[in-house]
Amino acid sequence: MNLLFVFLLTNPHLRLLLHQDSWKIPSCSAAKLRAPSTMSQPDYSGVYHMVEQKNMDEYLAALDINIALRKIVCLLRPSKDINHDPATGAMKIRTLTTFRNFDMDFTIGQEFTEDLGPVDGRKCQTTVSWDGDKLVCVQRGEKEGRGWTHWLDNDHLHLEMRVQGVVAKQVFKKAN
Fold this sequence. Notes:
Elements: H1 3-10, E1 46-54, H2 56-62, H3 67-75, E2 79-85, E3 90-96, E4 102-107, E5 112-116, E6 122-131, E7 134-140, E8 146-153, E9 156-163, E10 166-174
Antiparallel strand pairs: 1-2, 1-10, 2-3, 3-4, 5-6, 6-7, 7-8, 8-9, 9-10
């Protein structure tokens, strides 16, 4: 078995590229296939406080959140309390506000059922995976193209949230 084939079998996102009946790699450009990163993944652990937010009202509208709740959410300045064990991939992200808190507890690379009741009342199948040093979340459910991406830039945590082509961004600064 060649190394590319082994990599495709062990990577949960790329495994979908294989035809189950033939076990052949479908034709695709080499640029779309990325080799596993040789650098270690960053540790996201810490407490972060929001310092910037863009396009949140439009994002919440795309989730069918009513206007009154959207206005409240846009006024909030959430904090993120992240506990991350890079050795096991276990991660817990607590989003804390004066209005409502939201906990997300998962293992990187493993699909789980996420209850988004505190956010928009939906449940979805969620997978969080590495893309280089970024955490990419795909949420499969009622809304198309839903998910988010987290990445670190020095002492700043960036969050890009997506749903149905609408993108909102938040930036958090790590507490000392």
